[in-house]
Amino acid sequence: MPHRVAVLALDGVLPLDLGIPARVFNEACTSDGTRLYSVSTCSIGGRPVRTHEDYKIVVDHDESLLETADTVVLATQEPSKELLATGALPGDVAAALARIGPRARIVSLCTSAFLLGAAGLLDGRRATTHWALCDALARLFPEVEVDPGVLFVDNGRILTSAGGAAGIDLCLHLVRLDHGAAVASAAARRCVVAPWREGGQAQFIEHPVPQDTDRSTSATRQWALDHLADPLTLEDMARHANMSVRTFTRRFRGEVGSSPLKWLAQRRLSHARLLLESTDLPVARIATACGFGDPVTLRKHFYAYLGLSPLAYRRAHHAPEPA
């Protein structure tokens, strides 16, 4: 049975963001094309929803859909003046959220984090929202640890994302958690988006496109991906880019949003996950092929980023027919 995803659309919903869950989850399929998720959209009372733009949308379900969902996604909606002033939910919205099952995973996209905050679901938790409203979220809900510098936050049952494309990153993160990197990467290819952006990556990068492409770090990033098995250092990467370490680090962070070595570790980890899923290679071979050097270092990275060992990850996500 497919994993049931219910998307709640409220007045003020952003149409682009409303379509993100269905677009991503519907592209997560088995090798024979069977969809792994069933995505449905609901509104309060099943009524048409006024969007943030100049039109309304019609949905086929009311909020009773939330009772049977495995994952509930609160689509991005513009916080009302009342919510921003009082931190309180309207009665019908509070009643709808109360219908979510106790085991359901709850996801907020962008400013829908305000709804979770008002419902008390973020108390004592770390969370994020659009960078422009992080201060407002922190002031309104002081019990919440607001992090303005990340794309998304995974607290287990409760997950929050930053604005815009960060919602895509969070949905792909969920696919990766549920079904592994290979399925998530295939879904990303069909959506024509990047298959992996770490949740801890910065929301706002000042200079995403360097003015002088000859001084971009993109060629060095590709070179590093082609040499993951090598014991690359920061000095090696700077030398390849024909820059000083200081200049390379500054430009790399400006283009990517993270440090070179953190980015490299994430790429190595992503490749290791793919090999664990799709091959029968021993863990020691995978550690060498991904540049970790030995199984101990690989195991430390898996525990740090994923909370489980490489063997446990393989048991959970190994494909039935290894490549």
TrEMBL record:
It comes from the Bacteria. InterPro entries: Class_I_gatase-like, DJ-1/PfpI, Homeodomain-like_sf, HTH_AraC, INH-QAR. Residues 218-316 form the HTH araC/xylS-type domain. Keywords: Transcription, Transcription regulation. Gene3D superfamilies: 3.40.50.880, Homeodomain-like. This is GlxA family transcriptional regulator. It comes from Nonomuraea salmonea.
